[in-house]
Design brief:
The protein has a 5-stranded mixed β-sheet, with helices on both faces. Helix content is about 30%, strand content about 15%. It has about 180 residues and is an alpha+beta fold. The N and C termini lie far apart (about 65 Å). It has a single domain, classed as 2-Layer Sandwich (Ribosomal Protein S8, Chain: A, domain 1). Strand 2, helix 4 and strand 3 form a beta-alpha-beta unit.
């Protein structure tokens, strides 16, 4: 008899509705592995001419951006996580080129919604650098901020609340794509 069966026998049927699972509550799925197909697509992708300078965003710095015409109330709702998130993507383990392809594809796939909110997890860059004292600026975080600020369909973006990724993720508000 297994431990699970022993436990169920011990408590009997007195406790109804308890769901048992073989997955530990401390289980975290493995980090995203970029497939060979996505890497090949990234190599053929026309890389945008995003400046590699001008942004000095640190690991714990909050980021925020809104285009002219976007109300401050919308940005506040976005920052509090009060908008429905239609998709969430994770850029951990990617190069900036792979991240650009992934973000561009995701933004393009959301083109039929009027205003769409997505979440992009870029990380804080803690695993970069040789020592704790000599940490470079987080590349993916800075790249994500530059890319989103320059993308024509991005209306606004802001760091997520602490319980949803904090300064390691952003909520992005997208406009509808017009085919005209």
């Amino acid at each position: 008899m297994s431990e699970k069966e022993d436990f169920q026998t011990l408590i009997g049927n007195r406790v109804a509705g308890i769901k048992t699972s073989n997955v530990s509550p401390d289980y975290h799925p493995p980090k995203t592995v970029v497939s060979a197909e996505k890497r090949q697509y990234a190599e053929r992708f026309e890389h945008s001419a995003i400046s590699q300078s001008g942004y000095q965003i640190g690991a714990e710095d909050e980021i925020s951006f809104r285009r002219d015409g976007v109300q401050r109330q919308i940005l506040k709702k976005l920052a509090k996580g009060e908008m429905t998130v239609y998709e969430s993507i994770d850029l951990h383990g990617m190069t900036t080129l792979e991240a650009e392809v992934y973000m561009a594809t995701t933004i393009d796939n959301q083109r039929y919604h009027h205003m769409t909110c997505i979440r992009i997890v870029h990380g804080k860059g803690y695993n970069v650098g040789d020592s704790r004292d000599n940490k470079p600026l987080p590349k993916l975080k800075n790249f994500t901020a530059r890319y989103l600020a320059e993308h024509s369909r991005v209306l606004a973006f802001t760091s997520c609340p602490a319980n949803r990724g904090g300064t390691g993720a952003v909520y992005v508000l997208l406009s509808r794509f017009d085919d005209k």
